[in-house]
Every structure is written in C-alpha cells, then in structure tokens.
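TA notes, week 10

Several of you asked for a full example with nothing omitted. So below is the full record: structure tokens for the whole chain, then the designed sequence directly under it. When grading your own attempts, check the secondary structure regions first.
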C-alpha cells in the first residue's frame, strides 16, 4: 500500500499475525548496508521546532507521523496520510527501508512536535522506474511535508536485543530465539500447529544469521549503526 511508501514485502500473515513488533522485525529481512553514496541529497527545511526537542529520532526508532507528498514538477499532491487509515498517523521503523530512502534520511534527528518540509531527489525516491500505483512518474523529485508525533524505541533496539539475549553473551542462540517464540505464542493466545514454531525459527535464522554460524550476532541483529551493545 502507498500508506508507508513500502520498499519490501511484509512477513506472511499466517505466520506472524498477532505477534509483536520485535518478532516481526526478526521475520523481516534487515536492511543491508549499501555501497557508495548518492551525489544528490535530501534538502530539509524545519517549519516548526518545539521548545523541548527530545528525544530526537535515530535509526531504529519507531516513529508516528503524518506526511503529505507532492510532485516537485507541478506541485500536485500524490499522497496524504490523513486520508488513509481513518486519518490515523503512520507508524514505521526509521532507517530500515519501510519508507523510501529519502524519508529515512529526512526524518533523522527529528523530535516530537517538529514539522519539516523536505525535497527528495529521484535517486532517493523511486528513481528511473517511478511508482505507477502511487502516480509517481519516472525521475520524479518529491516534496514531503512531515509532522512527527512520537519517537519510541524500535523493535531492533539495544533493549529488544537484550530482552532475548538471556545469557548476555551478545549473540542470540537458536534456544534463546525458540524460548522467545514460545513466550510470544503464549502471550498472544492463538492456537498454532507445532510446526509453525519450527518454521518461524528457521525463517528468522535464514534472514538474520548471515555468516551461518548458528547464532545471530549483535551486528547481524542490530541494523542501527549508532546503537552500542
């Protein structure tokens, strides 16, 4: 859907319905570091800054925001979050590809109550292919007006990692993930076939254990470069 300007598919519903954001984050493939940088940059204009600007958003935080999107070429509006989902602000994790790269950049170091107007070049939006479903043509420069409401700890935060890492060895074993799954299944109370546990466990390690050593290291789990574990 156009609501969060997605970049990758969500986890399958039959496996993840009703589970927490932390588990959904493990089921989703982490954003990988990209080689090289674009010569183009996001231009940011702060329209309103609250007297108390804390906490400031960082990669991995869970944000709640409204935003309107416009085509720079003619000023036409292609998206308004207030007309979606009964007007509720959007929730998404910052910096992991749930929104276009330009928005991930534009909403860093932003505080609750802050408003920004940002200009995003095509290379940090939809590039040469455009986004036909969202009525965005190829090579389109985009303008977003953003109002941020909340900044919360995200599902791949240090706190989330430590919640699963029971023995505090800075890596997640299959046993630790398995126990976490059992706790989540018990908490959400849905009846699942026992095979679902094994399927989800395998999926988590397939997507997160990049060196295939049987553990999910802090580096493999924690896609947020500025967190310290």
């Amino acid at each position: 859907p156009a609501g969060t300007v997605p970049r990758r598919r969500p986890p399958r519903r039959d496996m993840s319905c009703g589970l927490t954001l932390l588990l959904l984050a493990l089921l989703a493939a982490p954003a990988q570091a990209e080689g090289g940088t674009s010569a183009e940059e996001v231009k940011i204009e702060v329209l309103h800054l609250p007297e108390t600007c804390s906490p400031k958003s960082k990669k991995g935080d869970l944000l709640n925001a409204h935003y309107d999107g416009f085509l720079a070429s003619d000023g036409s509006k292609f998206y308004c979050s207030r007309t979606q989902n009964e007007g509720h602000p959007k929730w998404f994790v910052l910096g992991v590809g749930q929104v276009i790269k330009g928005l991930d950049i534009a909403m860093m170091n932003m505080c609750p109550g802050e408003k920004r107007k940002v200009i995003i070049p095509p290379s940090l939006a939809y590039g040469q292919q455009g986004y036909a479903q969202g009525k965005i043509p190829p090579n389109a420069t985009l303008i977003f007006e953003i109002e941020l409401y909340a900044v919360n700890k995200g599902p791949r935060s240090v706190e989330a990692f430590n919640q699963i890492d029971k023995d505090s060895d800075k890596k997640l074993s299959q046993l630790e993930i398995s126990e976490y799954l059992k706790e989540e299944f018990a908490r959400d109370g849905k009846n699942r076939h026992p095979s679902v546990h094994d399927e989800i466990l395998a999926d988590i390690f397939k997507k997160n254990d990049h060196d295939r050593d049987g553990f999910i290291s802090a580096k493999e789990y924690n896609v947020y470069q500025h967190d310290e574990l």
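DSSP finds seven helices and eight strands in the chain. Use that as a sanity check on your answer.
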